Amino acid sequence: METYKWPAAKAPIAEIKPKQRILHGDTVTDDYYWMIDYFKKGPDSTATIDYLNAENAYLDTMMSGTKTLQANLFKELKDRIKEKDESVPVFKNGYFYYSRTEEGKQYNKFCRKKGTLEAPEEILLDIDELAKDLPYYAATGYSVSPDNKLLAYGVDKVSRRQYTILIKNLETGELLKDSIPNTEGDPVWSADNKTLFYTSKNPKTLLSEKIKKHKLGTSAAKDPVVYHEKDKSNYIGVGKSKSGKYIFIYSSATLSAEEWLIPADQPDAEFKVFQPRIKDVIYNVVALADKFLILTNWDAQNFRLMECPLDQTERENWKEVIPHRKDVLLEDVEGFRDFIVISERQNGLAQLQIRKLDGTEHYIDFEEPTYNASVGNNPEYNSTTLRYIYTSMTTPASIYDYQMDTKEKQLRKQQEVVGGYNKADYTTERLYAIAKDGTQIPISLVYKNGLKRDGTAPLLLYAYGSYGHSIDASFSTSNLSLLNRGFVYAIAHIRGGQEMGRHWYEDGKLMKKMNTFTDFIDCGHYLIEQKFTSPAHLYAQGGSAGGLLMGAIINLEPALWHGIIAQVPFVDVVNTMLDESIPLTTNEFDEWGNPKHADAYHYMKSYSPYENIEAKDYPNMLVTTGLHDSQVQYFEPAKWVAKLRATKTGENILLLKTDMDFGHGGASGRFDYLKEIALNYAFLLSLENISK
């Protein structure tokens, strides 16, 4: 096998401009702090762009030998996607809504038909046309007025998640003059068809701070504030109950929550608090016709379900419906007129309980050893049909309609893999690694049949491990490009997620965050011990908070990994959490801690990737970011790479790719994002000396 030859190019060297940070008796010199200045518009912003462009040019040179491979991978990935496609229609308020894509087009068309699927099509938004000639375009929050005549939606043309709400007259096709800037893109109609509620963002920190009310035909600059969140650690939002009777304001942090409501037909009423926030108590409200359901962790680590009368919402009136269970996490509740659907998690696997309001209950059966099942889009309150989504690492995403009264299910659509796919050619398994403290860590993996368990197979291990966000086993057409070339793909369900219950999250946050990193490392060792792979063929990938994971594991045990892909990585933890002008910082104190407190400062400094770079051999690395990223801003990975390049030993490859047009989520088109996947795969395949 011919070894891939990396070009002998000279890597960029970032300028050193020392800046001292003195806090809690600790002095730290940051040589690359100046890179923050692009958004601060300081004198060095041009130097920052020059450095990012130099790193992009270096990557292009180093990956120049993979141009053909990248092009072939892109075509291969794109060819598996059905270009002309249509979503399963969803019925709401007299109309069937769906989206469809056309051959060769990047975006979709949002459409509806009145009463029956045989009715004429109305194209509500043609995103292909709206996004024409723009490098980025995202539309979100589609909200049709109760009289079906107006469509409100949010638009972001920069990828900073600062949406402008626009309103379209669906009878004339014209846009109203109303334009509401700097929002979350979440318009909610009141029952009068002329009042909108929405979340307004702080233009500097991008925090969701206020809920405002907009009357059609008035200036958005004069929109009144109906709710102002004073706690900067809380996220807020606004929505409407499925029944359409209530408008809710949500305010939540990691450890507490609060909701406010008004009747949807009284848009000028004053919002009333449902239950004032209580420290360490989280709750979420679902409105039924004659009562409220409350999902809460009050005296229930894994949550329980309560109910209360419509006119007595304080906690002393809550009555238990489903008690707390130590082995079952109660995640969500979906309300219908005659049924409720409870999303649960047991032994790390999702399950759906159907409960009739008369008290009878049953579960939907799922058969595979590792999978993901979730409630789909169910906007119609009076329906007896549940739409849910099922997938596994070998089963393409499948949309089912389930009759909750008769227990009959109908497969409405399964993701088509163009060019053919045979599930029987692949094997999926669920394994358990033993962490250093004895905890069993689930691993979901998939590989093509015929794999030799002799340690020679390349393996890509993925994880996230933060915010209680569970990563479930699911199907990916993109992964087939690795599986068909001999790779094993694995997901480590590490602490910091919530796969095994609420304790799984609490044992991987704040002063227990190190468990997230050591769990992942222990999963890597286990896969090597089981001879799925070896250190010469073991790769890891993670993005955002999962990019923090990548940065931590290479500092803790660099020799375990042959290559790392870190996407939009959160790697400068201390500096970011100290700067409250950075978007999202204050929202994250309950997740990472506040470094203004000495114990939190020293603990997060002990694992922050940027703070712990040493002169040692690091794995081969590909780091990606976006200049307009509002979640993890570009300067974190840029500083990290600059410091790694100046400090590391050895000859392993270190590459930084900055997308100058996009942000946290990458490209907006349905094919453009495949170019980054092709780059990632070409990087891995080159390290494995696989040229085709």
TrEMBL record:
<keyword id="KW-0720">Serine protease</keyword>
<comment type="function">
    <text>Cleaves peptide bonds on the C-terminal side of prolyl residues within peptides that are up to approximately 30 amino acids long. Has an absolute requirement for an X-Pro bond in the trans configuration immediately preceding the Pro-Y scissible bond.</text>
</comment>
<protein>
    <recommendedName>
        <fullName>Proline-specific endopeptidase</fullName>
    </recommendedName>
</protein>
<keyword id="KW-0645">Protease</keyword>
<dbReference type="InterPro" id="IPR023302">
    <property type="entry name" value="Pept_S9A_N"/>
</dbReference>
<comment type="similarity">
    <text>Belongs to the peptidase S9A family.</text>
</comment>
<dbReference type="InterPro" id="IPR002470">
    <property type="entry name" value="Peptidase_S9A"/>
</dbReference>
<feature type="domain" description="Peptidase S9 prolyl oligopeptidase catalytic">
    <location>
        <begin position="474"/>
        <end position="685"/>
    </location>
</feature>
<feature type="domain" description="Peptidase S9A N-terminal">
    <location>
        <begin position="17"/>
        <end position="415"/>
    </location>
</feature>
<dbReference type="GO" id="GO:0004252">
    <property type="term" value="F:serine-type endopeptidase activity"/>
</dbReference>
<dbReference type="InterPro" id="IPR051543">
    <property type="entry name" value="Serine_Peptidase_S9A"/>
</dbReference>
<dbReference type="Pfam" id="PF02897">
    <property type="entry name" value="Peptidase_S9_N"/>
</dbReference>
<dbReference type="Pfam" id="PF00326">
    <property type="entry name" value="Peptidase_S9"/>
</dbReference>
<dbReference type="InterPro" id="IPR029058">
    <property type="entry name" value="AB_hydrolase_fold"/>
</dbReference>
<dbReference type="InterPro" id="IPR001375">
    <property type="entry name" value="Peptidase_S9_cat"/>
</dbReference>
<dbReference type="GO" id="GO:0006508">
    <property type="term" value="P:proteolysis"/>
</dbReference>
<keyword id="KW-0378">Hydrolase</keyword>
